């Protein structure tokens, strides 16, 4: 995605938005075991046809995944979020740990690549407001589209790079 396209959706200087009672919030997480990838969380709401990111959190390795899960659940509860969507990472572990802290972890049935494909039109029509987060912008613009076996398109980060923030932003904004 061109940098100009992504930056057109960034609200300059906005790093987060507080919870407001008139909004219904949704969340998406990309868990991590704490040794290599970041553990990320995005919370968003909708105003009319506009999807708005309220919170984007990242915990980089090394960290205790259970402590991060607890912290993220406390923030989710501040926004009135009782369930979070995430990938199939680590089998039952995320579901059990989020449940321990009062939040239902729901496995997203859509592959990451499909979330990115659904996210592109939201960016091109400027139907989203993104936080002012350089790492997120860089991750979004560095995504690569490849043709994989069977002629299908795949969108993912380049080898050796990360897309943890991009993943949760695309996931939550396609959800909202």
Can you put this structure into words, describing what you see?
- This protein is an alpha/beta fold.
- 35% of the residues lie in helices and 24% in strands.
- The protein has six helices and eight strands.
- The protein has helices at residues 3-7, 65-78, 93-100, 112-124, 134-142, 164-175, and strands at 26-30, 39-47, 50-59, 83-86, 104-107, 128-129, 144-147, 153-156.
- It has a six-stranded mixed β-sheet. A two-stranded antiparallel sheet has the order 7-8.
- The protein starts with a helix and ends with a helix.
- The model has no long low-confidence stretch (mean pLDDT 91).
Largest sheet: 6 strands, mixed
Mean pLDDT: 91
Q: Helical region count?
A: 6
Widest beta sheet: strand line-up: 5-4-1-2-3-6
Beta-strand segment tally: 8
Overall structural class, as computed from helix and strand content, comes to: alpha/beta
**Which sequence of SSEs, written as H and E, runs from N to C?**
HEEEHEHEHEHEEH
Roughly how many Å is the radius of gyration? 15 Å
Instruction: Give the termini separation.
Output: 21 Å
Strand content: 15-25%
Work out the helicity level. 25-40%
What ranges have pLDDT less than 50 throughout 5 or more consecutive residues?
Answer: none
Oligomerization state of this entry?
single chain
- Global outline: globular
């Amino acid at each position: 995605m061109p940098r100009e396209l992504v930056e057109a959706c960034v609200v300059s200087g906005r790093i987060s938005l507080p919870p407001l009672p008139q909004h219904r919030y949704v969340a998406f997480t990309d868990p991590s075991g704490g040794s290599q990838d970041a553990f990320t969380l995005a919370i968003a709401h909708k105003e009319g046809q506009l999807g708005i990111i309220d919170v984007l959190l990242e915990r980089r390795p090394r960290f205790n995944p259970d402590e991060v899960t607890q912290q993220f659940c406390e923030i989710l509860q501040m926004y009135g979020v009782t369930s979070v969507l995430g990938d199939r990472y680590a089998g039952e572990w995320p579901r059990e740990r989020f449940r321990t802290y009062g939040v239902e972890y729901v496995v997203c049935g859509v592959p990451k690549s499909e979330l990115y494909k659904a996210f592109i039109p939201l960016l091109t029509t400027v139907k989203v407001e993104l936080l002012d987060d350089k790492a997120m912008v860089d991750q979004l613009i560095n995504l690569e589209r490849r043709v994989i076996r069977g002629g299908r398109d795949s969108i993912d980060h380049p080898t050796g790079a990360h897309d943890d923030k991009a993943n949760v932003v695309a996931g939550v904004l396609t959800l909202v």
